[in-house]
């Protein structure tokens, strides 16, 4: 039988922290608007601030429904289910707030060295009700590991921005425009994350923020959790070496082509 609480009961907090994924449901105010449910994963992205407040780190994706809906009306439900052990479902009902990358709230909760690659916002949820139920129909599943493809792709985009930023900021120009490389995160946000499927505004601040990105060490991509050394500021020497390597590789390809080895 289902039970309801005004806050997260203490006995369920350890169970929530053990879960490997959760779902987030939101909807626009329009009666014909699209209701959205998004699965979320990755170790260490969901946080319990206290029994009345939770938040999670929102990574870049092809859509921006949750950010748009929460920005419009704040309504949000977070769902956890047990895939092993005793059956259980837990729903967290609340009012959400979006803190985009480089806002004061985002920076305070997520220092640069603790962010996931491609982190774009924090979704904060002020809880007004928590519901638990049996979950008898939920099947058993064995957890084999997190998929790291998203982290790898976002790290590549983020590092593209890092290279462009280093080149721009190393110039002697008095006014430096925000670099928007074609395959970087800022370009992706502008192309894919500024409006929801219903045309509701999504990301409003992050695509135009001048805050610099941190370089992501490719060796750390496939770790279950990012270490503090996973992201770092990249030096101009590293950028120079990267650029020279790319130029040398291109020159070698041209030479081999001319000699008909390719």
TrEMBL record:
Where does the signal peptide begin and end? none
Q: Which residue intervals define the domain Pyridoxamine 5'-phosphate oxidase N-terminal in the entry?
A: 14-133
Q: This protein's superkingdom? A: Eukaryota
The record, for InterPro entries, names: Pyridox_Oxase_N, Split_barrel_FMN-bd
Q: Where are the transmembrane segments?
A: none
Q: Which SUPFAM superfamilies match?
A: FMN-binding split barrel (SSF50475)
What protein name does the entry list?
A: Pyridoxamine 5'-phosphate oxidase N-terminal domain-containing protein
Q: Which organism is it from?
A: Macrolepiota fuliginosa MF-IS2
């Amino acid at each position: 039988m289902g039970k309801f609480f005004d806050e997260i009961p203490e006995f369920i907090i350890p169970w929530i922290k053990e879960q490997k994924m959760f779902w987030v449901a939101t909807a626009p105010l329009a009666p014909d608007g699209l209701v959205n449910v998004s699965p979320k994963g990755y170790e260490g992205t969901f946080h319990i601030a206290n029994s009345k407040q939770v938040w999670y780190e929102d990574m870049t994706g092809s859509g921006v429904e949750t950010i748009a809906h929460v920005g419009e009306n704040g309504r949000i439900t977070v769902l956890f289910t047990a895939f092993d052990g005793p059956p259980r479902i837990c729903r967290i009902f609340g009012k959400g707030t979006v803190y985009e990358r480089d806002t004061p709230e985002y920076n305070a909760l997520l220092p640069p060295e603790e962010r996931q690659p491609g982190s774009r916002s924090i979704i904060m949820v002020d809880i007004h009700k928590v519901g638990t139920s049996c979950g008898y129909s939920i099947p058993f599943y064995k957890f084999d590991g997190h998929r790291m493809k998203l982290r790898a792709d976002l790290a590549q985009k983020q590092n593209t921005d890092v290279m462009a930023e280093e080149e721009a900021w190393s110039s002697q120009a008095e006014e430096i425009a925000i670099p928007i490389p074609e395959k970087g995160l800022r370009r992706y946000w502008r192309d894919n994350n500024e409006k929801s499927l219903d045309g509701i505004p999504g990301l409003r601040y992050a695509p135009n923020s001048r805050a610099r990105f941190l370089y992501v060490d490719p060796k750390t991509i496939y770790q279950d959790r990012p270490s503090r050394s996973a992201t770092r500021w990249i030096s101009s020497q590293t950028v120079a070496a990267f650029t020279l390597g790319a130029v040398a590789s291109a020159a070698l390809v041209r030479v081999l082509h001319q000699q008909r080895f390719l």
